Amino acid sequence: MNRDLLKRIRELSGGRCDYCRMPRHSDPLPFQTDHVIARQHGGDTVLENLAWCCLHCNKYKGPNIAGIDPQSGDVVRLFHPRKQNWSRHFQWNGPTLLGLTKVARATIRVLAINDPDFMAFRAELMEEAIYES
Ligand SMILES: [Zn+2]
């Protein structure tokens, strides 16, 4: 991946994980680029299909492109950071991330964003006002 593309993805992310909004500077682990539509599903390495995310989100997302909304049981596409607006889909309740839509709830589940250890880490960062809720 060329450096200009990587730089643009980082700029678009605003220095935060495109999924859980973890600030890059507060995470000891390196952030990674994610193909929103994985290459194995035909996703291209272009700005419109790339996200910048924390290791936790990237590890759980893997090549997934869809999930099941725990409320409705519907199979839906995962959140697309380049095509969808984060704040229309997600809302904080302290360190818990709430899904306002089927897409958001499925994404939170597949990416394990409310995993207890991950939430405890986020709660610490929020207490230190490093992580905006
Ligand atoms: Zn994340």
Task: Write up what this structure looks like.
This protein is of the alpha+beta class and 133 residues long. The protein has one domain. It is 32% helix and 17% strand. The chain contains 5 helices and 6 strands, in the order H-E-E-H-E-E-H-E-E-H-H. The strands form 3 sheets. It has a two-stranded antiparallel ribbon with strand order 1-2. A two-stranded antiparallel sheet has the order 3-4. A hairpin with a 6-residue loop joins strand 3 (66-68) and strand 4 (75-77). The mean pLDDT is 94. Residues 17, 19-20, 22, 53-54, 56-57 line the site of zinc ion.
Q: What is the subunit arrangement here?
A: single chain
* Helix proportion range: 25-40%
Distance between the termini: 32 Å
Largest sheet: 2 strands, antiparallel
Radius of gyration: 14 Å
Estimated structural class: alpha+beta
Residue stretches low in confidence (pLDDT < 50, at least 5 long) are: none
DSSP summary, beta strand count: 6
